Amino acid sequence: MSVLLETSLGDIVIDLLVDNAPKACENFLKLCKVKYYNYAPLYNVQKGFSFQSGDPIGPNQPGSDGGSSIWGLLRDSAPKTFTAEFHNKLKHTERGTVSMATAPAPSGDPDERVAGSQFIITLGNDLDFLDGKSAIFGKVVEGFEVLDKINDAFVDEKGWPLKDIRIRHSIVLDDPYPDPDGLDEPEKSPVPTAAQLATVRIADDEELEEETDPEALEKIRREREARAQALTLEMVGDLPFAEVKPPENILFVCKLNPVTEDEDLELIFSRFGKILSCEVIRDKKTSESLQYAFIEFDNQKDCEQAYFKMQDVLIDDHRIHVDFSQSVSKLSDNWRDGENTKRRRTGGGWGGVDNLEKKKQYRAENTEVKRNDGYGLLVDRSGHKKNRERSSSPRASKDRGYNRERSKDRSNGRDGRSRSDHHDSDKRDRRDDRYRHYDDRDKHRRR
């Protein structure tokens, strides 16, 4: 008398001890025959101790009644439990011992316990704690590697596997008992009920493989690096916000002939729609064309048409290349200037310029900053205001007067004469000394 349980981790074959526990064996066999255990979860997994199953939905789950014996399942008037059988010779000494989970009898008799459909399979040896509490009726003879997998499964604090372990199917290999009245064996395995599907966390057939493709990992690394760089640019003020995207109505054109002018491009591309701006980028010193340009259309649709139609078109003997712009410079300028509402552009294709201030992360709402130093640096005007207030104080005025007097003293001599007067006086003294030297030399010769 044996039963094969097909689980999501493999097959388990159980031999039933019909001589020692006939009632429990009959109950288990008939429940397997009507596919009562199909899609039942494994729960209460305790490593090195045991696991439990037999409730089609799972204990303490919505819609669960704890399970029923075959007699309570076939007749509404019959109780859902039966009196468990305990044999003195049957102990939980070996791994793979199968027993019915029991509960105290409703009658209150301490020597009587009842069982329904839930059963326990041990994962360790010499578990005498279960003796007298779980009624042994079978033992595992095949599928010990499946028990090892269940024992190593990741579970939560309540013993539920994080990834579902289910009984997919049950097959009765040998049944010595006649079927009770009302038992109809289904022709095929029934589909899971809605209540059973609602308890699924991670499906037992769902693959949880970590991404190991080198190209995919490199892509993830670059995306993370790009986000970090964008966040840095936002923090220093070069981007309005890290998630800013380039406008979708601006076209990038390259491989231009150096002689191609703005007016030429605007005339050629204007057939696709209204152009707001067309600019060939030039060297600041020499004003020579750098052979690429940006063309801003009034709407995104016109820009897309130009993108599809103008690829590899010959302009001034050069085949141009067009693409959508990846620059956000105009977007950043609008954000910095604070004149979003005065612009012609409404921001339809690029997220709405008016919403930029709402998305900034590293700007305090009451901070007054302005780019006014000629180098594109952020200057705190409140600091300048404090300096002006400090310079207008009485002490500052006194210090300025003292500094002016010292400056005047440095420019004038200590006797009050100007530096130019001192210079003229020194000049006259040197001239008189020179003439005096000549007179002394003449007197010496006459002697």
UniProtKB/TrEMBL annotation:
Compartment(s) of residence: Nucleus
Top-rank taxon, per record: Eukaryota
Family to which this protein belongs: Belongs to the cyclophilin-type PPIase family. PPIL4 subfamily.
A single cellular component GO annotation: nucleus
Disordered: annotated segments: 333-447
Key word Nucleus present: yes
Catalytic reactions on record: [protein]-peptidylproline (omega=180) = [protein]-peptidylproline (omega=0)
Annotated source species: Microthyrium microscopicum
Biased composition (Basic and acidic residues): 355-373, 389-447
Residues of the RRM domain: 249-327
EC numbers on record: 5.2.1.8
Protein name: Peptidyl-prolyl cis-trans isomerase
Reported function: PPIases accelerate the folding of proteins. It catalyzes the cis-trans isomerization of proline imidic peptide bonds in oligopeptides.
